[in-house]
Amino acid sequence: MENLAYALVQLVHNFGAVAVTAAPIVALRPADASIGDRTLAGLVVVAWALQIASGISFGLTSLHYYGVLPDLGATAQAALVVKVSCAVGGLALSALLLARGARWSARAHDRSWRTLAGLGATALAGAAVLRWFS
Ligand code: HEM
């Protein structure tokens, strides 16, 4: 049961990681996208929220099965802070883009999508460090 719980959390977390990183890249290439900017923004909001929920669920699963949270060293803690910061920033920016983007210039849209792609890539780099230093 424990392995199944971790696998299900990881399943959501992995697909969320793909969505938060790939969707902004798709949005930056409108000629290739058959999906609208607003739909992509909605998808990214949901994906960042799922990343946060599934990230917390990793901790809750450990708490449930072992009674404690994983003991992280300084490097792993720093990587986790990077990931959490990216997730909070990504959720806030994508929510703003979804709510107010209709009134923004094309330049502001472009900048937002670039920032969101950067936040996704930075969080993925943090995930690699967290994985091997925890
Ligand atoms: C609140 C935010 C987040 C929390 C609390 C969190 C937490 C975690 C935890 C506890 C793990 C398991 C670590 C391990 O392998 O031992 C993990 C794995 C992972 N996370 Fe996150 N995460 C968050 C956000 C993100 C984001 C935004 C991304 C990518 C865009 C991401 C990508 C990954 C990936 C790819 C793994 C699997 C690493 C591997 O096993 O190779 N996470 N995360």
Describe this structure in words.
By secondary structure, the chain is mostly helical. The protein has one domain. It has helices spanning 2-27, 37-66, 74-100, 106-133. Helix 2 (37-66) packs antiparallel against helix 3 (74-100) and helix 3 packs antiparallel against helix 4. The structure holds protoporphyrin IX containing FE.
Envelope shape: elongated
Say which molecules are bound, naming each kind only once. protoporphyrin IX containing FE
Kindly provide the radius of gyration, computed on alpha-carbon positions and rounded to a whole number of angstroms.
16 Å
Q: In oligomeric terms, what are we looking at?
A: single chain
N-to-C series of helices and strands: HHHH
Distance linking N and C termini: 22 Å
Can you count the helices? 4
Helix content: over 70%
Major sheet size, sense and barrel closure: none
What's the total count of β strands?
0
Output mean pLDDT.
95
